[in-house]
Write a structure and sequence with these properties.
7-stranded parallel β-sheet, Rossmann fold, NAD(P)-bd_dom_sf, binds NADP nicotinamide-adenine-dinucleotide phosphate, oxidoreductase activity, globular, oxidoreductase, Sc_DH/Rdtase_CS
Length: 256
């Protein structure tokens, strides 16, 4: 049994300080709940607290899409928590378009900011503290749509593909310092953001409606399906896991 497991083999995060972006609903809220249950002190962020901040979590409003937003959030995390041992980049998403060629330039930049550069900027601000302390765990949330040709979401899949590549490279850089970096890649998960996007996609392309029947395990994912994988990866149970990409999609998009 590892030092951070309890008698039942559940990961324990007592004494760990975690920052989770986008924790007011959906997958992020599920991750916050799991980390709290495991004993971590958790700070989460969203543009507003109009969603539900899970009980027991601290909250600071921030927009992670800008350099200023990332800097303010990193400063608030150090202020509130005293430092960050666990960093989960969950805030993300994009709206579909009828044509990939019709995605406006500003929207490309916005989607790249939210789904790729927010992680790059926050890591640059918070990973050095982990490196100095000789430990830490970072998780980037990608999308199972990355290897698939989905023109309506091309801005999104390009940003998430970049995130996966970035995550592997950062893992290699930080491994010698004892800091682990992994990616978790969800398929279709029932969340407010996911449902909204799928409704809009079905409106643009009615053949997409009801495609949950394509999930080999027969149902959409739940936020907790993703949160349990994140909990494992940030705990000492995954102490020999870095640079990995944990695809959790009910078997919909097998990767070689
Ligand atoms: N659900 C799926 O089917 C699915 C599939 C594959 C991948 N994913 C990925 O999983 C992650 C979570 O998705 P979800 O479906 O749970 O999303 P969601 O239901 O839309 O929740 C997103 C969370 O992020 C926050 N957020 C959004 N933009 C933000 C910003 N600019 N700055 C700070 N916080 C922001 C939201 O709060 P505010 O709106 O108040 O800011 C909310 O708390 C995303 O990275 C998404 O790409 C989801």
């Amino acid at each position: 049994m590892g030092a951070t497991e309890n008698g039942t083999g559940t990961p324990e995060l007592k004494g760990k300080r975690a920052l989770v972006t986008g924790g007011t609903r959906g997958i992020g809220a599920g991750i916050v709940r799991r980390l709290l249950e495991a004993g971590a002190e958790v700070l989460t962020t969203a543009r507003s607290s109009s969603g539900t901040v899970p009980e027991g979590a601290r909250f600071v409003a921030a927009d992670v899409r800008s350099r200023e937003g990332a800097a303010e959030l990193a400063a608030a995390a150090v202020d509130v928590l005293g430092g960050v041992d666990i960093l989960v980049h969950n805030a993300g998403g994009a709206q579909p378009h009828a044509s990939a060629l019709g995605i406006p330039d500003e929207e490309w930049l916005d989607v790249l900011d939210l789904n790729l550069l927010a992680s790059v900027r926050l890591d640059a601000l918070l990973a050095p503290g982990m490196r100095e302390r000789g430990s830490g765990a970072i998780v980037h949330i990608s999308s199972a749509a990355v290897p698939v040709a989905f023109p309506p979401f091309l801005h999104y899949t390009v940003a998430k593909a970049g995130l996966e590549n970035y995550s592997r490279g950062l893992a290699a850089e930080l491994a010698p310092a004892g800091v682990r970096v992994n990616t978790v890649t969800p398929g279709r998960v029932a969340t407010p953001g996911g449902e909204k996007v799928r409704e809009e996609w079905a409106r643009l392309d009615p053949t997409q409606a009801g495609s949950e029947s394509l999930v080999p395990l027969g149902r959409d994912g739940l936020p907790d399906d993703i949160a349990r994988a994140v909990l494992f990866l940030v705990s000492d149970q995954a102490s020999w896991v870095t640079g990995s990409n944990f695809v959790i999609d009910g078997g919909e998009f097998p990767r070689g």
